[in-house]
Specification:
Blueprint lengths: L1 E10 L2 E7 L3 E6 L6 H13 L22 E9 L2 E10 L4 E8 L2 E5 L1 H12 L3 H8 E3 H9 L2 H12 L2 H27 L3 H96 L1 H54 L3 H56 L16 H89 L6 H28 L2 H31 L4 H99 L6 E4 L5 E5 L2 E4 L5 H23 L6 E5 L7 H14 L5 E6 L10 E4 L1
Parallel strand pairs: 3-13, 3-14, 8-12, 12-13
Antiparallel strand pairs: 1-2, 1-4, 4-5, 5-6, 6-7, 9-10, 10-11
Keywords: Coiled coil, Exonuclease, Hydrolase, Nuclease
Pfam families: AAA_23 (PF13476)
Protein name: SbcCD-like exonuclease, ATPase subunit
């Protein structure tokens, strides 16, 4: 089995992620918390639908994903040259699980549990076996040699799955003890043979008593059946009397109800007639007040017109005031514009003058630069000549000090007779240089410096003039901005004035008189109470038609009830009912019922006695049956105890055989790799049945703790790989061709890291893929392939 591709959506740290797995030694490199280990958690989740540590499945979904976003993990892998793809999904708020398994792009299995079962059948490994076989951490490697013997033994047995056998063995011992306790407890509660004989005699005696009571019940039951027949006949006659009585009572009640209804309708008719007469008089009154309503409505409309005219009048007065203010602003803005235009008219002329001055200053600046260059040249020339004079003067002084026997400073020959000529020649050179070169250069320098001073004075005057001119231009430009603002303000005032003038022209057609408006309001106030009274009369008179209709309906109902009352009274008179005979029949029925109840009570008492006897028989029988069951259980537990003892013996033999097979196999695999990694320095690693580790050095066996840290690290590595291989062989999963190691470098120095990587390069031929997870960024150059996360 090798991994080819992994795609994640909303899985833990990853919103979207895809990785292609290649062959060889692969480094998974990234900072702590970057999600390196999450990649292998996703692989485990894809294959088995579970994380490495079981927990709340909510942690699977990415924290930035919504409840509507699905969690999807897709893993492609090869197994025995066949391509497989497994897809796991969690969807919805409840994270409902689903899965699919493809073989050569063909769907072969669906469903979360079904896919997990198929993966287990394919790899021949459960989730725990898969983790222990193919994944290893730094903690596991160091624990192999650093842990105490008992802890190391426990860890390796857990990796190999042997702790399950230990658990079963422990359970068998505990179960055997429990069975022995239970068998002892059962012996105390079982019945003796004498107790069993007494209980069987009681059953025979109770059975005879029950048969005699049953005969008495049969006799009484026959008498009870005859009494029930008599009761049924009387009951039918009694029901006829009761039905006749109820019929006559119902007719009497209906007649009384009809009489009350007729009386109620008569009262209501009188009330409606009185109300109708009152409304007719109100109708006459309303006709006389109709003009008041019309006058009030007309006045209300006129007042609305006056209110509209008042609004126009207020708007007109506001516009007139605003126009007066605008005229003042218009006049003031116009005067300000004229003044500012006058004050800024020289702006163009001053700007041109400023440009001319700037050109002049630039010209003076260039002239000064040229003069300074000439001045510097002359100063350097004078300094050079002065140095020459100084050097010649030193030569004269040296020759004078040396005397006639000295060598010429020029040709190096002895001076002798030429002594005076040399000194004179050198003094002539000094004088000539002083007069012809230094003095001339000094005169030229003085003229240049004088010219420079004059030009600098001129420059200062121009700079001052330029400064004053710039101040004047800045002032004018400031006033130009004020001029622009005033023009904009002037334009706004002008436009507003024109707009107001147009609106005033429209309002001139409206005229408003406040006294007329006040008179109308006063008149409205006087009419308001009469108008409201008219409205109340109109509302009241709307009921006339409904009252008439209600009165007519009441009269019709009263006639209907009179007719019904006559019919019901005739029916009441026609019914024949005798109260005395009815009471006699009730007394006769009560006597028969008392007789029936007496017989029933007697029979029930006898049945209770039978039930009591049968209960006693049942209790005794159950006691006997329970004793038989307990005897059977005791025998079953004894059989179970025998079986457990046999299994314990077999399991102990199996453990001994398995240990003798597993430890040597780990030793063989680890020894071969260790010899290869150490280039033959160490030939053998021994793993004892108690999982203690020894390394053979020059034919002698030593505990692993004797060796250096680097040698122990390499030994831990090959031992962990050997355990993985042994696990694969035990499970039959020989086609798994990859391993993954998490942070195996730990805090190792560079030399240790190189040793570990060299070890992996040595053993990589045995696996098509080896993944090394690390947060050490500097080691990424040591891998054949690197995936950075």
């Amino acid at each position: 089995m090798i991994l080819t591709n992994l795609k994640l959506e909303n899985f833990k740290k990853y919103k979207h992620f895809e990785i292609v797995f290649e062959s060889g030694l692969i480094g998974i490199i990234g900072k702590n918390g970057a999600g390196k280990s999450t990649i292998f958690e996703a692989i485990l989740f894809a294959l088995y639908g579970e994380l490495k540590s079981k927990g709340d499945k909510e942690v699977v979904r990415n924290s930035n994903a919504s409840s509507k976003d699905a969690v999807i993990v897709e893993l492609d892998f090869e197994f025995d040259t066949i391509e497989y793809k497994v897809i796991r999904e969690f969807r919805g708020k409840t994270l409902s699980a689903n899965a699919k398994l493809y073989k050569n792009a063909e769907l072969i299995t669906t469903g979360a549990k079904e896919v997990t079962t198929s993966i287990i059948n394919l790899t021949k490994m459960s989730k725990d076996a898969f983790v222990h076989t193919l994944f290893a951490s730094q903690k596991e490697l160091t624990s192999l040699s650093n842990s105490k013997p008992e802890e190391r033994k426990k860890m390796i047995r857990k990796l190999l799955g042997l702790e399950k056998i230990d658990f079963v063995e422990k359970e068998l011992i505990e179960k055997s003890r429990e069975l022995k306790r239970e068998i002892g407890a059962f012996a105390e509660v079982l019945l003796s043979a004498e107790d069993i004989g007494i209980k069987k005699e009681y059953i025979v005696e109770y059975t005879k008593q029950s048969q005699e009571i049953q005969k008495d019940i049969s006799t009484r039951t026959t008498l009870l059946d005859n009494t029930k027949i008599e009761e049924q006949t009387i009951k039918q006659e009694l029901e006829l009397y009761t039905k006749t009585k109820e019929q006559k009572q119902n007719l009497h009640a209906r007649c009384e109800l009809l009489k009350n209804s007729i009386k109620s309708h008569q009262v209501n008719q009188d009330k409606l007639s009185h109300e109708l007469n009152n409304l007719n008089s109100k109708q006459t009154e309303l006709r006389g007040l109709q003009s008041v309503k019309e006058e009030y409505i007309s006045l209300h409309e006129s007042i609305k017109e006056q209110e509209k005219l008042k609004e126009f009048h207020i708007r007109k007065e506001g516009l007139i005031l605003e126009q007066n203010e605008l005229r003042d602003q218009y006049k003031k803005a116009k005067e300000t514009i004229i003044l500012l235009e006058f004050e800024t008219k020289e702006h163009k002329e001053l700007v041109e003058k400023e440009k001319a001055l700037e050109l002049k200053l630039e010209s003076i600046k260039q002239t000064l630069i040229q003069i300074q260059t000439k001045e510097k040249t002359l100063l350097q020339e004078i300094a050079g000549e002065q140095k020459l004079i100084s050097d010649i003067s030193k030569k004269i002084e040296n020759i004078t000090n040396l005397g006639r026997e000295s060598n010429c400073p020029t040709c190096t020959r002895p001076l002798l007779d030429e002594y005076d000529n040399v000194i004179l020649s050198l003094e002539h050179i000094v004088k000539t240089t002083q007069k012809e070169k230094i003095d001339k250069a000094t005169i030229n320098l003085e003229e240049i410096q004088k010219n420079k001073e004059q030009i600098e004075e001129s420059q200062k005057a121009y700079i001052k003039e330029h400064f004053e001119l710039s101040k004047a231009i800045n002032l004018i430009e400031s006033k130009n901005k004020d001029l622009q603002l005033q023009k904009e303000h002037f334009e706004k005032v002008t436009q507003k004035g024109v707009k107001n003038k147009t609106e005033l022209a429209k309002l001139e057609i409206y005229s408003y008189d406040n006294s007329i408006h006040e008179q109308m309001l006063e008149k409205q106030k006087e009419l308001k109470s009469k108008y409201e009274y008219v409205l109340s009369l109109e509302t009241m008179l709307k009921r006339v038609d409904s009252i008439k209709e209600e009165l007519q309906t009441s009269i019709q109902n009263q006639d209907k009830y009179n007719l019904e009352l006559l019919q019901k009274d005739l029916e009441y008179q026609a019914i024949n009912y005798d109260e005395v005979k009815h009471q006699e029949k009730i007394k006769q029925y009560d006597e028969v019922q008392a007789k029936k109840d007496s017989l029933t009570a007697g029979i029930n008492e006898l049945k209770v006695k039978i039930a009591t006897i049968q209960g006693q028989i049942k209790t005794i029988q159950e006691s006997l049956n329970n004793n038989e069951i307990q005897l059977s259980k005791v025998q079953t537990k004894k059989d179970d105890l025998t079986d457990y003892e046999k299994i314990k013996i077999s399991l102990a033999e199996f453990k001994t055989k398995l240990n003798s097979k597993v430890a040597p196999r780990i030793s063989d695999i680890a020894s071969t790799m260790y010899a290869q990694i150490t280039k033959g320095k160490y030939q053998h690693i021994e793993v004892s049945n108690d999982f203690d580790f020894y390394i053979y050095d020059e034919g002698k066996k030593y505990p692993i703790e004797r060796f250096s840290g680097g040698e122990i690290d390499l030994a831990n590595l090959v031992l962990r790989i050997a355990i993985s291989k042994t696990l694969s062989e035990l499970s039959g999963a020989s086609s798994v061709e990859f391993l993954a190691f998490d942070e195996v470098f730990g805090s190792q120095d560079e030399a240790r890291r190189m040793e570990i990587l060299e070890a992996f390069h040595t053993i990589k031929e045995q696996y098509r893929q080896i993944f090394l997870i690390s947060h050490e960024m500097e080691i990424k150059e040591m891998f054949e392939r690197v995936v950075e996360v």
